[in-house]
Amino acid sequence: MLWQQLANGIAVGSVYALISLGLTMVYGILRILHVAHAGIYTLGAYVGLLAFRLMGDFWLSLLVGMAGSAVAGYLVERLLYMPLLHLPRIAPLIVSIGLFTAMEEGFRIVAGPHTLTYNAAIGLETISWGAFRLTETQVLILLVTFGILIFLWAFLTRTRMGLAMRACAMDAETTSSCGANVSAIIALNFLLGSAMAGAAGVLIGVYDNQVWPTMGSIPAYKALAIVVLGGLGNIPGTVLASFIVGLAETFFIGILAIPFPRDAVAFIAMILVLMFKPYGLLGKA
Amino acid sequence: MRKNSMNRLLVGLMAVILIAFPGTSLAQDTIKIGFFAPITGPAAVDGTSAKNAVEIGLKEVNDAGGIKGKKVELIIYDDRLKAEEAVAIANKLIEKDRVVGVVSGSYSGPTRVTAPIFQKAGMPMVAGYAVHPDVTWDPKAKKPNDFIFRNGFLGEVEGAAAAEYAVKNLKAKKMSLIFMDNDFGRAISAGFASHAEKLGASILAKQMYKFPGEKDFRPFLTRIKEGSPDLIFAAGYYNEAAAIVRQAKELGIKGTLMGEEGFDSPKFLEIAGPAAEGVIIATNLDRDDPRPLVQNFLKSYRQAYGHDADMVGASSYDAFKILVAAIEKAGTDPQAIQKALLDTKDYNGLTGKITRFVQGEVIKPVQIQVVKEGKFRRLGVVDNPEVITPPMKK
Fold first, then answer.
1. Does any CB of chain B come closer than 8 Å to the CB of residue A255?
2. Chain B residues closer than 8 Å to A262 by CB
3. Are strands B143-144 and B137-138 parallel, antiparallel or unpaired?
4. Is B230 helix (H, G, I), strand (E, B) or coil?
5. Where are the domains of chain A?
6. Among residues A180, A140, A163, A165, which one has the least CA distance to residue A24?
7. What CATH class does A2-276 carry?
8. Where does B28-153+290-363 sit in CATH, by number?
9. Which of B158, B186, B229, B290 is the most exposed place for a label (fewest CB within 10 A)?
10. Contacts of B250 in chain A (CB under 8 A)
11. How confident is the model at residue B178 (pLDDT cuts 50, 70, 90)?
12. pLDDT tens digits for A187-217?
């Protein structure tokens, strides 16, 4: 049972990581709490589903979902956040919350209030080992998430653009004065983060076989807690925090059988971290 | 052009007349019945199903000449699954629309808040499928809301009937429960567990999940799998139900999966897909009931809306027809309608034969259905009077 619960927890944690990374990257560079990121996640699921229904191929629909989210994230940055950057940070936050609510209503109006199914043939195999099962969709989640994480790590540490992005997160003005195109870096940041959220949307769509207008409302605040837990803007910390929260939720329910709502776990962890390690798990003062 | 402007003039004139004389002579010779359901919002699938089914009932009544020569008019409201909407609707139905009786096609939340309003106004209401005990009961005064009647089962009764079938017919000995954290989930699983234990079965695990919001049932199911139960009783609405069933199959759980009326929706079959095969549910509607009443309803529903009817629709249809039958017997005075409802005896309903109402609660057999080739089919009926008679409230 332990192994099965471990698999369940890592799968959930992977999806949390994909959602939270975009949020922490945006915070790292712009110091904005990008609440509408959860709307971008839902959009990814809907765009992916639409692509799947039109073309019938899951992998293609995953790419289209990611692309759809990336474009939407980029537009949010250019059209909403950039014009507001000279205002106190509360202004883009309010815009972001408003946008998120509007997006949820938009999904409801366009796609209807009902749950849609994402019944895709993925073409992977369930791995069985005695009573233990790594289900087909769990294999999918692990493959996609670890693929993306390795890509992200390589990009940030092995390319000049990645270096510039990390520099920008430390000090955008200095980076700019060194000749880096900060505007392009910010755009790339949104494209990457939103594509990951779109991937998460598609993955949850097939994992639960459900896509619905308010699927982003729980991730919206849970990702926030995870990002704080990982240390705002800290990428490795966020990945670590995602897996901790995913595993803790699963173990609380499935092994300790403590009957309390799973969504509380992330917040209890967040409160503890704020009390004892206010800069996050891997954060430095 | 001339014709067009003429039309406009006519429409304008009509509008003026309608505004100037709202609902006068036209409405005098109809019998007004109020209806509310969550037609939009999170429960839109169920609300629409209830409305569709009641409209079939309305058409049947009016095609047959109405009630004593008077056409029936249905005043439809959308409560959006919100209690505050339902309160406003209840007051509107009483004061503005002046209906003679009301049908609830809604969940417990909205139905429950309207009950004291209708009770106080002396307005009879028949609830299609709302399950909360306080729909028919005034918890403060500790007496029944004697103007309110329920066509659906109490959670306890349906749970006990499911347990009766699981132990006696399916011969299950070791069982585990997974249910949602709301009134319905708690009541039905408590009814199931206590009756199953009374019949000698053992309950291995009781797992409660957060509602609404939970989608990932794998941690719960992994724990349940560990005890290898013969049968898992699950309570939830169609979204949760479908996720539980799919994930149980993915994890390789072998025991029988049993559910309740929340599973009884075409959406459950759609989302669960092939994983739904063999799932057994306790519910209100028997699709294989040979009575023409049932087969005709199923046929007209399919013809009118292009998909199969479900338990929510059938129960709301029944609630409407029960009220119509009472008006036929007693006329349009609300007091007389209430008296006729209290005197209901051996009523031939779409969702089974109703023996009578006790404290507003229905006594009728509980249907057991199984999913075969993507459709709900009859598996059995629980009619043991000890199980299906609702406990007296006090």
1. yes
2. 210, 214
3. antiparallel
4. coil
5. 2-276
6. A165
7. mainly alpha
8. 3.40.50.2300
9. B290
10. 126, 133, 135-137
11. very high
12. 999 999 999 999 999 999 999 999 999 999 9
